[in-house]
TrEMBL record:
This is Ferredoxin--NADP reductase. It comes from Flagellimonas oceani. It holds the Pfam family FAD_binding_6. Residues 259-349 form the 2Fe-2S ferredoxin-type domain. PROSITE patterns: 2FE2S_FER_1, 2FE2S_FER_2, FAD_FR. The lineage of its organism: Bacteria, Pseudomonadati, Bacteroidota, Flavobacteriia, Flavobacteriales. It comes from the Bacteria.
C-alpha cells in the first residue's frame, strides 16, 4: 500500500533564502504511477541520523508540465526541511510515495476560482492556478497570497510569469505582514482581506470555488467570512499545511481495555490485539504492517481507511466530511477503538 520508489532529484532551485523547489526525475516506466491531479501531494521518506522521517509536500507543478516538483520551506527547529534546504542537490536519490490527496481541481467546465494562501500554502495553489487557467480559455483565477515580505514569497517569479501570460484572467493580491509595498495590503489574511476581495476588488463576481491553504487560524477566518458573505460550504476547499496537534489526548486517558483488530492491506489480512489507549495507526505500525502514513497529525490523507466493523473515535478530524464518515472512512492516525473488535480496510479507499 505504501508505494514508494527511489527517484533521483533532477533539480534543486532556490525560491527564497529559506525555501527550495525539488524536481524529481521520473523514469518512463513510472510515469503512469506518478501522474497526479492539481493540488495533490507526495510523501518523501528519508533516514537521517538513523531515524526514518516521512514528510508530505504538495506538488507545485501542473500535471500538464510533465514535471514533479515540490516546494520545501525551512522550518525553525525542523529536521527534514533544514536538510532539504541545506544539503540536498541534483543527483541525490529520495524515496517518494506516489501522489495522493483530495485537495484537487479537476473541473472541465468554465470556472471562476479564488484562492487564499499563506507562506508555503502556495505550493498546491501553484498547480491548481495553472491548471485552472490552462483548462479553459474563459477561466479566471484570483490569488490572495500572504507572506512576511517579498523576499520570503515562494514562487514569486513564477507567479509574475503566470501574470504576464494570463494577464487578463489571472489576478494577484499580495499581503505582507512585515513590509509596506505598493499595491500590496499590509497585515495578514483575515476577515477584512476577504471582504476587500469580494466586495471591492471583485465586486459582482460569482466565484465557482475557493481554495484555501495555510495555517488553521487563517483558514478558519477566511471560511467564516466566505460563509457570512453567502458562499456555500460546498464551494470552499481547504488544506492545512501543519498538523494541529498539541499532544493533548483526553480520550486516551478515558479508555480502558483491549481491542482485537483485523487489518486488510494489499489483499492480506493481519490480526492483533491493541490497547484502546493507543491509536490505530500506531498499533498497526508496531506490528510491522506497512500501512500508508505521512504527517501522523491528521493533516494529510495518507492514512485513511474504511472501518467495516466496530467503532472508533477520532481525536481530531480536519479532512473527512460528514458523508465520508458515514461511509465508514476514518483517519487511522487519529482513531482510538472503542469496541472490543474492529475491522480496518486500507484497500477500499
Amino acid at each position: 500500500m505504501s508505494h514508494f520508489h527511489a527517484l533521483k532529484i533532477a533539480a534543486v532551485d532556490r525560491l527564497t533564502p529559506n525555501a527550495v523547489a525539488l524536481t524529481f526525475d521520473i523514469p518512463e516506466n513510472l510515469k503512469e504511477a506518478y501522474s497526479f491531479k492539481a493540488g495533490q501531494y507526495i510523501t518523501l521518506k528519508h533516514t537521517l541520523n538513523g531515524k526514518e522521517l516521512r514528510r508530505a509536500y504538495s506538488i507545485s507543478s501542473p500535471p500538464s508540465s510533465g514535471k514533479l516538483t515540490v516546494g520545501i520551506k525551512k522550518m525553525e527547529g525542523g529536521t527534514f526541511s533544514v536538510y532539504a534546504n541545506d544539503q540536498l542537490k541534483a543527483g541525490d536519490s529520495m524515496e517518494v510515495m506516489v501522489p495522493e490527496g483530495r485537495f484537487v481541481f479537476d473541473a472541465t467546465s468554465p470556472q471562476k476560482i479564488a484562492a487564499f494562501a499563506a507562506g508555503s500554502g502556495i505550493t498546491p495553489i501553484m498547480s491548481i492556478a495553472q491548471t485552472v487557467l490552462e483548462s479553459h480559455p474563459d477561466n479566471t483565477f484570483v490569488l490572495v497570497f500572504g507572506n512576511q515580505s517579498p523576499d520570503e514569497t515562494m514562487y514569486f517569479n513564477n507567479i509574475q510569469s503566470i501574470k504576464e501570460r494570463y494577464g487578463d484572467r489571472f489576478f494577484v493580491q499580495y499581503v505582507y505582514s512585515r513590509s509596506t509595498v505598493e499595491d500590496a495590503l499590509f497585515g495578514r489574511i483575515e476577515r477584512s482581506t476577504v471582504n476587500f476581495v469580494l466586495k471591492n476588488k471583485f465586486k459582482g463576481t460569482e466565484f465557482d470555488g475557493f481554495y484555501l491553504c495555510g495555517p488553521k487560524e487563517m483558514i478558519a477566518q477566511v471560511t467564516d467570512t466566505l460563509k457570512y458573505n453567502g458562499v456555500s460550504k460546498e464551494k470552499i476547499h481547504f488544506e492545512l499545511f501543519t498538523a494541529d496537534d498539541d499532544g493533548d489526548d483526553e480520550l486516551a486517558e478515558e479508555l480502558e481495555g483491549k481491542t482485537r483488530v483485523e487489518v486488510l492491506l494489499d489483499d492480506e489480512t493481519f490480526t492483533f490485539v491493541m490497547d484502546k489507549k493507543e491509536r490505530v495507526l500506531d498499533s498497526v505500525l508496531k506490528e510491522d504492517i506497512d500501512a500508508p502514513y505521512s504527517c501522523q497529525g491528521g493533516v494529510c490523507s495518507s492514512c485513511i481507511a474504511r472501518l467495516t466493523e466496530g467503532k472508533v473515535e477520532m481525536v481530531r478530524n480536519q479532512i473527512l466530511t460528514e458523508s465520508e464518515i458515514e461511509e465508514g472512512f476514518i483517519l487511522t492516525c487519529q482513531s482510538h477503538p472503542i469496541t472490543s473488535s474492529i475491522k480496518v480496510d486500507y484497500d477500499d479507499v
